[in-house]
Amino acid sequence: AKMQKYLLYHSVGPEELPTLKELSTSEICKIWSGVSRYIHRQLLQEKAVEIGVGTFALFTVHASVEEGKVLPVERPVFILSKPLRMFYKLDCDETKIPDETPVVQLDFEEIAADTHFRQEIVEQCIHETLLCFAGALAEEKEVEFSFK
Question: Model-level pTM?
Fold first, then answer.
């Protein structure tokens, strides 16, 4: 059910983004940096992190280092959730998280403590940013979302 709220038919109006309106760009970036650090900590513990529109997970890819030498490298990958892929008719590779990988949700309390924002601000900021992201997908706009 949580996923449903990111299946939109049109972009999101400012009235649906009260928290983002209140926060400055640098505050929004601080919160997302906290999210990024949280995801990083989980990946280091070999857990995947589900963020509402998809999941971050570590995958082993084989990188060619020099002639004939191949090295397994762990690489973080973001997998857009299947309902979103289907709803927005997105063409992504079907990537499955290994069954033995535990999947965790964002811990808003931990991110709030780390970033010194109130928990509901963190939660709303993340939710509203993802709404913007979904709205951009609905309008087929190009979206760039960069994580450290």
Answer: 0.88
